[in-house]
């Protein structure tokens, strides 16, 4: 995921200012070489260890943890261990995903494994995960949400990998329901843990399970929007090549929704994808067919539906959710 | 590490019988494909998912957890979550280590990444770690030991990797003190967590920190013995090629001790290693020089010293440590 414009408000920036010193302190217990690679992965340093002012990610997950705590009357600081933990888990998953997917670029820079090699990058991912666990080891309620998220995260990534061997047509095509379960794990679980651990540490553990569901819905919306950006996003914004997910045969929401449509373009699309879209012309053509069959519009509608469900829960159950709500709405607007 | 003859007694087998159903239950929450790869990594299945009766490791770490609980008057079952967790972390670290080191064989079979590919093996390692964390998420005292072990483990592995770029002679040679710190992390931390979490869950949390040190000493002994087996072990026992660590320029205890000796063979060895030992003759010659300079004897003495320290603590502080003590002594006898 690459949240391009997570929020117009100052709340996310305020959370980021709290987060960064805590993240740096967490990383300081690593071996110096490991700390240097972690600093690159987190966006503070270039590959030679020099300070880097770049796109280290917008910190959506930690902001959700801290704003969730505030939404139940706690302080942002109270949720800081959860905020640090989810940001570290996010960095861990990106480091390993880029190895798995052979992605050479990340946030307009080399991927970690391109900069340091596969072995060191793999180990740095492990280190980031160990630091995340360490943040919440002494807080069993929040830790249980993080632990559940880790299992759902790897299960979602395994499902995503297994989808690569599924066909584009016929009875074994990936369904929207299967897609939704996969992204609920791959992307939803960490937002779920952020929200649930956030309200728990903010003083309202009784809202933890409800916020888990809410965070997961947000995550599904987030991933659907990311899927849209992966096809139609501007490369200078997303940091990825245009149409990159189409080139890699990724089972994304717009494509699956287009294939499921009763439309002539859907059949043409499944034939084209089954042949494989390798050259520029066929990739462009596939993107046009996805749009023609209604895949892009369906994705926008579905993402907005999930965000609306999440916002509805906040409006009903959280006394002071204005900043959290604004962040969620801004996430849904990214693909417009 | 590859404990070849961890114990003559039935205590380890008794622990293994308790462990296996709990491990299988832990793995059952994974995606079916992930569960299949985990079953291969844990030694229950071959690469096609068929049941496999093989060398899944002797279960030394979980036995230490369970026997530590018994040693303070608790039941083996009370320490089962810690036992499962340390075995899963061990399997995680082997899965990732084999990717990092390009090792194609593990326990007389293909390494996980050779069987399934780097991406799936990497993800399976992550899954095993997530399951380990899940075992102790609700037990903050034991979780804190596991969390500390994870950080020391990755720091030790990072140090081990950094040693690859260190020379064989001159002022930048790796010292025995640096080696010891590295293996205390890479190998000692997980045995430390097993012992400390074991007594904690067994009802004596006040002994946790002491048993951490004791387990770490055992781990250092364990690794020194493994280093000896990595040079002089029988390939059909260790499952590794003869002299494998020498071929790979690994900074192991016998070699470092030999280099530090005031002996003509030490100087000849450093010259030989600096040139690189690639052919059969030079590898054999290097092994002979390590022995001639006293590296093998020094390793045996040092391992026995660490085991004696650990056993001394057990004799003084644990009321019923007979089985745990026997296991530890048997570990020290592996290299004889």
Please describe the structure with a list of short key phrases separated by commas or semicolons:
homodimer, 336 residues, mainly alpha, Polyprenyl_synt_CS (chains A, B), Isoprenoid_synthase_dom_sf (chains A, B), Farnesyl Diphosphate Synthase, disordered N terminus
Description:
The first copy, chain A, is mostly helical. Chain A has a single domain (11-332), classed as Farnesyl Diphosphate Synthase (Orthogonal Bundle). Chain A contains 16 helices and 2 strands. Chain A has helices at 11-27, 32-41, 60-71, 80-101, 112-116, 118-136, 140-163, 176-201, 208-232, 235-238, 244-247, 253-260, 264-275, 280-292, 295-317, 322-332, and strands spanning 105-106, 109-110. Chain A has a two-stranded antiparallel sheet. In chain A, α15 runs antiparallel to α16. Chains A, B: Pfam families: polyprenyl_synt. Chains A, B: GO terms for molecular function: (2E,6E)-farnesyl diphosphate synthase activity; dimethylallyltranstransferase activity; geranylgeranyl diphosphate synthase activity; metal ion binding. Chains A, B: It comes from Nonomuraea jabiensis. Chains A, B: Keywords: Magnesium, Metal-binding, Transferase.
